[in-house]
Amino acid sequence: MKRVLGLLVCGLLALPAQADKVYKWVDAEGNTQYTQTPPPPSVQTDTVHLPTDPPPLPAAADSTDAPPAAAGNAPDNKALQEQARARNCQIARQNLETMTTNSNIAMPDPNANNNLKVLNDEERLAAIEKAKQQVTEFCTIHAPTAAPPAPTTP
Predict the structure, then answer these.
(1) pTM higher than the cut 0.85
(2) Each residue of 47-59: pLDDT tens digit?
(3) Which domain holds residue 96?
(4) From CA 85, how far away is CA 52, in angstroms rounded?
(5) Are 105 and 98 in contact (CB under 8 A)?
(6) Do 99 and 134 contact (CB within 8 A), yes or no?
């Protein structure tokens, strides 16, 4: 249940900036609901305030205006790329585990003003396949291509 709640919170954080207020409430069946529209007045609600701005990204030079990177900057760039890849791998694996171990998955529905929608079995299986692809993409370390060996002279 904590993983589903974590996924829901991550999904809520991904909502557009205009979605700065979310209502959390429990429906008649005991399910926790997150909506952008207020629930019925007879229901006790909590308001979840979302951040309006995403966290700042590390500063990067614009490749169209900057000269080629100096040899000394290459390790820093590779280190940042490796950190990002490792973080994306961790997130992809957590998403896959959540999707495969929980049958009730809710995600923002872009067709319904980003209100949360519980995925049906077909949508859940598609989300699992997408999560598997992301694990493959982010968790596979691609070895740099090596130059062919130089011919030897006798």
Answers:
(1) no
(2) 776 666 666 666 6
(3) 2-51+77-139
(4) 26
(5) yes
(6) no
